[in-house]
Design brief:
The chain is an alpha+beta fold. The protein has ten helices and eleven strands. The protein is elongated, with a radius of gyration of 27 Å. The protein starts with 10 loop residues before the first helix and ends with a helix.
């Protein structure tokens, strides 16, 4: 059956069906736009989905002349603001690339979810257009809610996974390798590192590195006041920098010395209670897209776990150094069955100091 037929009385239901079949909002916008335009009798147009529950705005074009694409993208935010201020449902008229276009908001319960625009071609708006646009808004609302739920589930799963792995009796290096690989996976990053402060809190060193930068950064140190990491340490606020070339405080010497090219990053302070011990960084989205504020929140939620894992491991290392190594030998604890690499202090130590 021809789903694009202007005589199809079930067009609204079919557009909603597209929403159920779509993997995300971007796919839905791309799928329904040509159907809507043909039904309207228009030769080109665009649709924009913009909602706080979405990780990013989605914009789809269909047959828009290249001369008009730039104008449309430059004015999308202004048009959306004007639509949000409108008190009626009359299409908002604009002039783009020498031709007229009409815009309508995509709304649910007076919440603006985006807009759709089409070349009017001096054709009157179909009387049932508003009902169809309303169904598009409803579908976008459902997809935005789905995206939000999936994102929260991913955050929760990642949080539990990292928390569970960091709580296991393994050495610090193994714990951080697990945490950093999980962080990279969660935000689709090429590399991740923990920049740990020295005791004087004057210098960073790359305490642990995973990803393509691992063989390049392991011995590198720099002053804790430098770079995005230094700024994050001072403010104690996580940051997303999606174009490091535009950030005057980006510390480019590391890239120069290692040959690793940083495009974008998320930097998150590591706090053990109120004590800053370093900064977690993830570098370079693997798909060359921007990191999002939502991904920043995800990393912020697991940073405390990583910070306390580091602090606990440092405490254990001091125990091993002070008692196990100096009193019992470098490779064993005498008659104690607890292996020296174990996370838990040995039996002899606990009996002596309990």
């Amino acid at each position: 059956m021809d789903i694009t037929s202007s005589h199809d009385p079930n067009l609204t239901l079919r557009l909603i069906h597209f929403a159920l079949a779509a993997s995300d909002t971007g796919q839905y916008c791309s799928d329904v736009l040509p159907v809507f335009l043909e039904w309207m009798g228009s030769d080109y147009g665009f649709v924009m989905a913009s909602d706080p529950r979405l990780p990013a705005e989605n914009i789809a074009h269909h047959h828009v002349p290249s001369s008009a694409v730039t104008d449309i993208e430059e004015h999308l935010r202004d048009w959306l603001d004007q639509l949000s201020d409108a008190s009626d449902s009359v299409p908002f008229s604009i002039r783009v690339g020498g031709t007229d276009m009409s815009l309508l908001p995509l709304c649910v319960n007076e919440r603006l979810l985006g807009m759709i625009g089409w070349h009017t071609m001096d054709v009157a708006v179909r009387p049932d257009c508003f009902a169809v646009v309303a169904s598009l808004g409803l579908a976008l609302d459902c997809l935005a809610a789905k995206a939000s739920l999936e994102r929260k589930l991913l955050h929760f799963t990642t949080f539990l996974e990292i928390g569970s792995l960091l709580s296991k009796p393994v050495g610090l290096s193994d714990s951080l390798e697990i945490a950093l690989f999980s962080s990279m996976k969660a935000v689709s990053a090429e590399a991740a590192s923990v920049l740990l402060l020295d005791e004087a809190k004057e210098r960073f060193h790359f305490f642990h590195v995973e990803g393509t930068a691992k063989p390049l950064l392991g011995e590198t140190t720099f002053e804790s006041s430098h770079g995005v990491a230094g700024r994050v340490l001072r403010s104690l606020e996580a940051e997303v920098v999606n174009n490091v070339a535009d950030d005057d405080q980006f510390y480019g010497r590391i890239d120069e010395e290692t040959g690793f090219r940083t495009r974008n990053l998320i930097a998150v302070p590591l706090l053990a209670g109120r004590d800053p011990i370093g900064v977690l960084e993830v570098l370079n989205r693997t798909d060359h897209e921007d990191f999002t504020a939502d991904e920043r929140l995800l990393l912020s939620s697991i940073a405390d776990q990583i910070a306390y894992a580091i602090r606990n491991a440092q405490t254990f290392d001091r125990v091993v150094d002070v008692y196990c190594h100096r009193r019992q030998g470098a490779d064993s604890c005498g008659d104690c069955p607890q292996p020296i690499e174990s996370w838990a202090p040995c039996i002899n130590y606990r009996e002596r100091f309990s």
